[in-house]
Fold:
Amino acid sequence: MPKTVADVMSHEPVVVQAQTPLKTAIQILAERRISGLPVVDENGQLVGIISETDLMWQQTGVTPPAYIMFLDSVIYLQNPADYDRDLHKALGQTVGEVMSKNPITISPNKSIREAAKIMHDRSVHRLPVLDSAGQVIGILTRGDIVRAMAAEQD
Structure:
C-alpha cells in the first residue's frame, strides 16, 4: 500500500507567528538545522512560510527597478510594486514582513507520489500539512520523501 504524507511528514512542526522577531526565527532555523517554518495566526491557521530563501533578502538587499526618462516622464522597465515588496523583505524586522504568503499546502491523506509531483512542479522544498480545520499538523520536506524512497529500497 502506498505511503501517505501522514506516514512520513514531520509531526508537530515548530511554527512561528507573523509578529515573531526575525532574529528569533533565524535562531530557530539555525539551532534546529531546518530550512523553513510555517507561520500561523493566533488561531493556528497558516498565513505564510518563512524560509532560508526569504532570509537571503536580508543579506543581498534590493536593486531599484530600472527605468528610462522619456519626455520628462519616468517609465519603469520592471514593476515598481515588485521593488516595494522586495525592499520590505530586505528591511523587515518581523517574520510577517519577510515571509512568503499563500504557501502551497497538502493534506495528510495524500500520497507521497502526489506530494513529490507538487513539490517538483511548483519548485517548493517543503509543504505544510493541514488538517481539515486548516491547522498545521506537520511539514513534509523533500528530505522526508527521499528517506521514504530509501526505506522502500530495503
